[in-house]
Design brief:
- The protein has one domain.
- It is of the alpha+beta class.
- A hairpin with a 7-residue loop joins strand 1 and strand 2.
- It has one helix and three strands; from the N terminus they run E-E-E-H.
- The structure holds zinc ion.
- The site of zinc ion has 8 residues, from loops.
């Protein structure tokens, strides 16, 4: 139910700290993490949720831009 705060590096300048609220796979009730089955389908691939709380204070990117870039890079 409750999320936790995490800090990610800014994907643009790599210097800023981005504050995120992270919800680990709260909707996948079955298993926590099954990495033992390579090629075994990807049903619960990404049920984690990241909410970007702040933009980058170093390079001035907004939270929205940071989120977009992090997703593009496959970080979140
Ligand atoms: Zn930055």
């Amino acid at each position: 139910m409750s999320g936790q705060y995490e800090e990610l590096s800014c994907p643009f300048c790599d210097k800023g700290r981005i504050t995120c609220l992270y919800f680990p796979s709260q909707w996948s009730v079955k298993t926590k993490r099954t990495k033992t089955l390579p090629g075994g389908g990807s049903v619960n691939k990404s049920t984690e949720v990241w909410l970007i709380q702040s933009g980058c204070k170093v390079c001035g990117k907004s939270a929205e831009e940071v989120e977009k870039e992090l997703k593009k890079q496959g970080i979140i």
